[in-house]
Amino acid sequence: MENLTLKQEVALLRSAVIGLIAERDPEGEYRPEFIESTFATMAEKPIYRFTTPKKFLAHIRKLSRA
Q: What is the pLDDT of residues 5-51, one digit of tens each?
């Protein structure tokens, strides 16, 4: 096994634990890439701050057209 950084080791362990204990979705199992992507997104600093549901939906519509 190659030398991994602590951050890489933690990411691998987190992925393994999620795979072992995650509830099974009725539509199928989650792909590890999806879980990693979700955690990476959660770690990012938010770009937008939504103050109303209307502003949130307007932003989503704008993104879907791009």
A: 888 888 888 887 777 776 666 666 667 788 788 888 888 888 888 89
Domain range summary for the chain, segments of one domain joined by +: 6-65
CA 48 to CA 12: how far, in whole Å?
30
The letter for the amino acid at 3 is: N
What does the alpha-carbon distance between residue 64 and residue 43 come to, in Å, rounded to a whole number? 23
Nearest to 13 by CA among 4, 25, 26: 4
- Enter the tokens of residue 2: 């190659």
Q: What is the DSSP letter of 30?
A: P
Helix (H) or strand (E) holding 32: helix 32-43
Residue 12: count of CB within 10 angstroms of its CB: 13
